[in-house]
Amino acid sequence: MPLLDIIVGYDCNLACDYCTITPEMRERSLGTRAVVEALRRGPRGGYDRVSFTGGEPTIRGDLLPLVREARRLGYADIKVQSNGLLFTEANVTRLIDAGCNRFHISVHTHREDRYDDLVRREGAYSLMAQGLDAVVRAVRAHADAGRGELHLTVDLIIKADTLNDLPDAVRWLHDRGVRSVHLWFVSLTDHNRENLESLPRMTDAVPKITEALRFADAEGFECLSLHVPRCLLGEEFLANVWDPGAQDVRVVTPDATFQLDASKITGQVYVPACDGCEYRDLCPGLREDYLEVYGDAEVARVRGGPPSRAPTRFKTTPLP
Q1: Which of 52, 73, 222, 246 is deepest in the core (most CB within 10 A)?
Q2: What is the CATH number of domain 3-266?
Q3: Does the model's pTM come out above 0.85?
Q4: Which pLDDT value is given to residue 182?
């Protein structure tokens, strides 16, 4: 199903230590009229789902009218992507009444002792946890009342200093009632371009990712990995790999409109080891920022060939 992904603006009420948004970008946003025009064009292009994201869309005073307009225009699926800090029970109810039927909450770490430092805002953890619980309760209430489908997905960030906590984070989310988790690999773009230490090697991340996926599969809830190639995760987890760019996703930003598969935060690069891979047609490849840091030795090794691309941004420790 085609998706219209609208980045309404880059401003945010957090300042996460890995955020790719620069101070200059935070000043840029789409006006209400521009968002409405994008919404009206969407159905003419076959887009019947819409996502409001940012930055942080919930800090916009016009979010509720925009959601109502999307519903009026006939969008079948209306998503709000948020850090959850403003998801009070009343605000969640308002969004649902306006037409939102899909919530995505970004969780940067589940650990209370680390969250506020990571997002650089005191008291943020308790607001995030309360917002998460408010949406979980709303999803359960809708299901119990048979009022139609209401969805919640948590986007869990994979970065070097939170990697070891990943399986516990998925368990924590499950215990709070979350039944859908997407695992996002940190990106070295724009404001996070020089934060090399935030990016883990994929082969170091895979054991933690697969532990989390096994737990989710055992408990019967969705956990998907978005940026690690299938060849590195292995055949056991083929069903847990998801490439959003494989769908028809049109991204509308304050700066440009483009298809998601052309975004710099999605995989676009195939290396020689990819040749002949049975998953080539399903795999989006590797991101350029990842190859600059680690080269292609990991993929080459698992595919049984020599590396062809060395790191260019710093010298890494050779693979054992």
Answers
A1: 52
A2: 3.20.20.70
A3: yes
A4: 98
Please give the Cα distance from 211 to 167 (Å, whole number).
6
Q: How many residues does the chain have?
A: 320
Q: Answer for the pair 254, 29: CB distance below 8 angstroms, yes or no.
A: yes
Residue 89 backbone phi and psi in degrees, to 5: -55, -40
Give the CA dihedral 143, 170, 20, 16, nearest 10 degrees: 100
Residues 6+ apart with CB under 8 A from 58: 80, 82, 85, 86, 87, 91
Burial class (CB in 10 A: 0-12, 13-18, 19+), 253: buried
Write down the mean pLDDT value for the chain.
95
Contact criterion met (CB below 8 Å) for 126 and 172: no
Query: In terms of DSSP H, where are the helices of 1-123?
Result: 32-44, 63-72, 89-98, 112-119
CA 212-215-221 angle, 5° bins: 100
Q: Provide the 10 A C-beta neighbour count for residue 105.
A: 23
Distance CA 233, CA 250 (A): 28
Range from 54-63, 114-123, 129-138, 271-280 carrying the lowest mean pLDDT: 271-280
Beta strand pairing status for 3-7 and 249-252? parallel
Task: Indicate the domain borders of the chain.
Answer: 3-266
